[in-house]
Design goal:
One of its GO terms (molecular function) is calcium ion binding. By secondary structure, the chain is α+β, with helices and mostly antiparallel strands. Helix 2 links the parallel strand 2 and strand 3 (about 80-85).
Length: about 700
């Protein structure tokens, strides 16, 4: 069975709360439960604090684990600093599957190999999934996953594994159920009927990874941690004994250097951890290896609402399809997906959906990829195939954490801070971590699933906007609503949308600046998250968002242009349709004379008045009529667009336009079809990198 990770795009966000957390008093430490010390500080306030404070712990890396370490340390009363070279969660932490796995893959290994360590990891992952649900109930929720059964003998095996999985989970976890083939097709009509015996439905956790990471970091700041993004460590500071005693970081926005001193320095830089370890010890052996995973975003019709499958999921109206983690040797800064990645995932989707449905390249709305850090194979890790994490004290007393997932970030942060307290001889106010039971992220307190109704009733917001704000900012959604401008309409009363396709409003841009967004990329990628859903929409709203940010950050016109230019480059290279090799995918020769090419190219330029590089299909139809086509053959045009495999919905670029005109106006449809068949055959004969089957245990969501 082909396996691909598929997940629901949950664009939830975090809500930043107004005060104390409601905590459980059950903890080993008799010290009172911590209260938030302050309102959210500004970035400038944190920079000033770096100059005068000698910290207990400095964490380098603002991803899931690094932000988790900052929260754990701050809630224990330690003087904490956190720096991130880019933006919080800008690396792997914002490029996950959006699922909080309970460890179903580990359970497969545990059963087949009687691996006790794997059983422990499954139990830990299930417990941590529950803890994260308590930590941020507004950002995480259960999602049903449909697991197809293709052979009768698979049913009892899957039942046994799911039964064990459910018994190991906390009591409140929803149970699983079995569906017949007809019932499975009723809830998931896109599923391929051939050889379908039935399906199981079980539940996993789902969350918005970027907003979760940001919310963890911001909550740590409210507990007293000084946090700062766009602060790149240039060197480690060492004391007279040669041990690490801090770091020198450069503000990437101003170029100013800051010397941040601390008793313990934690390296939580993910797949970049070995680079920082080289600063500690130039002879350090590699501790981290990497695997690569690519994800494409597709329209909502690929996955039923509120459902996911072992290959696809969809939460906030989009479908995510992702590859299993594969080892890949690329430069550390190279996070650009390739066209090979995209086509591989599309081929896997075709394997699962009904053959009556065309899976096309134009359905890909966004593309991204990320590295997953893994510990290097060692004598202590060789016994298990799914290596988890390593916490290591370096020769100069820098603590490095490598590995982990979103399902384990909290417990890894707890272990890392425990190690920092032990090795650094720190004196926290609370010896035990409070993040498992007693802590909630800022915005979680006072939130309820029906809170959005108040936003509709009290502020006159549209329902989808109100739900988005509630599930993104939690109880702080009211702060965003208060700052929202009037729509100028009878309804809705407040909330100017940035784009009709999404529930994002202008007031969120102002809130995003308060939430440490420093660049236009920060805003569209990790505050609004639109770049991860639809690159074309993200590019369309860039000028509007940049102008709002300019007022908040006092950008000049030149700075606005620079931000737009840099963000477009980011969208095209790391998030968009212009994947590696996509420019070289023009494999089908255009069957036209030079004179005809010039004629049609001139027609294309006339229609493309704004120099976007695209013209709409409607424009193409009008052009056909001016060239003698009395009635546009809509069905034939559909087949031609499928054979061309256009890269965008509803529009074509110049190359695609020429192929379209060649096929319909010139009558070369058969040539186009045979050319496509030849290319597909050539790709298979060359042993291409488009796997039809992936190892089940390497896949992201299934057994």
């Amino acid at each position: 069975m082909a396996k691909i990770i598929q997940m629901a795009v949950m664009l939830g966000s975090s809500k930043l709360g107004h005060g104390a957390f409601g905590f459980d008093e059950r903890q080993a430490d008799s010290t009172p439960v911590p209260q938030m010390k302050r309102e959210l500080p500004t970035r400038k306030m944190c920079l000033e604090a770096f100059k005068r404070t000698h910290y207990d712990i400095l964490i380098i890396g603002g991803g899931a684990v690094g932000s988790g370490c900052a929260l754990d340390a701050a809630t224990r009363g330690l003087k904490t600093a956190l720096v991130e070279a880019n933006d919080f969660g800008s690396g792997t932490s914002s490029k996950s599957s959006k699922l909080l796995h309970g460890g179903l893959r580990d359970l497969e290994q545990a059963i087949s190999r009687l691996d006790v360590a794997a059983f422990r990891r499954v139990r830990c992952s299930l417990q941590e999934r529950s803890h994260i649900g308590k930590l941020a109930p507004h950002l995480s929720q259960p999602v049903p996953i449909l697991l197809p059964v293709h052979h009768w003998w698979q049913a009892p095996l899957y039942y046994m594994k799911l039964k064990i999985y459910h018994l190991m989970a906390p009591k409140a976890t929803r149970s699983f159920q079995y569906l017949s083939a007809d019932d499975a097709l009723e809830v998931f009509p896109m599923l391929r009927r051939q050889e379908l015996f039935g399906a199981f439905v079980f539940y996993e956790g789902q969350h918005d990874d970027a907003r979760m990471c940001l919310s963890v970091a911001l909550t740590a700041a409210r507990y007293g941690a000084d946090i700062c993004n766009h602060m790149k460590v240039s060197r480690l500071i060492k004391n007279k004994d040669g041990n690490v005693a801090g770091a020198e970081a450069v503000d990437q926005l101003t170029g100013k250097k800051y010397s941040i001193r601390a008793k313990v320095v934690v390296n939580a830089t993910g797949h970049m951890s070995d680079s920082l370890r080289k600063m500690e010890d130039s002879e350090a052996k590699p501790l981290c290896t990497r695997s690569w995973s690519s994800i494409i975003v597709m329209p909502r019709f690929y996955c039923p609402e509120e459902w996911a499958s072992s290959t696809r999921t969809r939460p906030l109206g989009h479908t995510l399809v992702g590859s299993s983690d594969e080892p890949l040797n690329l430069p550390e800064q190279d996070t650009q997906p390739t066209e090979t990645d995209v086509q591989s995932l599309l081929d896997c989707v075709k394997h699962f959906v009904t053959p009556n449905f065309d899976v096309r390249r134009c359905d890909v709305l966004a593309v991204w990829g990320g590295y997953k850090p893994l510990p290097v194979q060692s004598d202590t890790l060789h016994h298990t195939r799914f290596k988890n994490h390593v916490i290591q004290l370096g020769p100069r007393n820098m603590l490095s954490i490598v590995g982990g997932t979103w399902s384990s970030f909290r417990v890894l942060a707890e272990k890392t801070v425990n190690a920092a307290i032990r090795y650094g001889d720190l004196s926290p106010l609370r010896k035990e971590s409070v993040t498992a039971e007693s802590c909630k992220l800022d915005g979680a307190s006072g939130w309820s699933p029906k809170m959005f109704i108040r936003l509709v009733q009290d502020f006159g917001m549209e329902r989808d906007v109100a739900e988005h704000l509630s599930n993104t900012y939690g109880s702080n959604a009211f702060k965003v609503a208060v700052s929202a401008d009037s729509s100028g309409k009878a309804w809705p009363i407040v909330g100017k949308r940035l784009h009709s396709e999404f529930p994002y409003i202008e007031a969120e841009v102002k809130q995003g600046v308060r939430d440490f967004a420093c660049t236009l990329e920060d805003m569209v990628a990790r505050r609004l998250r639109v770049a991860f859903l639809n690159v074309q929409v993200a590019e369309e709203i860039l000028p509007q968002v940049a102008n709002i940010m300019a007022k908040e950050l006092n950008w000049s016109r030149d700075q606005i242009k620079k931000q737009i230019r840099q963000t477009r480059t980011f969208l095209n290279s790391q998030m968009g349709q212009l994947t590696k090799e996509s420019a070289s995918q023009m494999n089908i020769p255009i069957k036209m004379s030079v004179r005809q090419v010039r004629k049609f190219a001139g027609q294309f330029r006339q229609m493309d008045e704004n120099n976007t590089g695209y013209v709409s299909i409607a424009d193409c139809c009008r052009a056909m009529k001016t060239m003698g086509v009395k009635e546009v053959p809509v069905d034939l045009m559909h087949d031609v667009l499928r054979d061309i495999d256009v890269h965008a919905q509803g529009k074509v670029n110049l190359y695609e336009f020429l192929l379209l005109m060649s096929a319909i106006v010139q009558g070369n449809t058969e040539y186009l079809r045979y050319a496509r068949l030849y290319l597909d055959h050539k790709k298979q004969m060359q042993g291409s990198n488009f796997p039809a089957v992936m190892q089940m245990e390497r896949a992201g969501g299934g057994l």
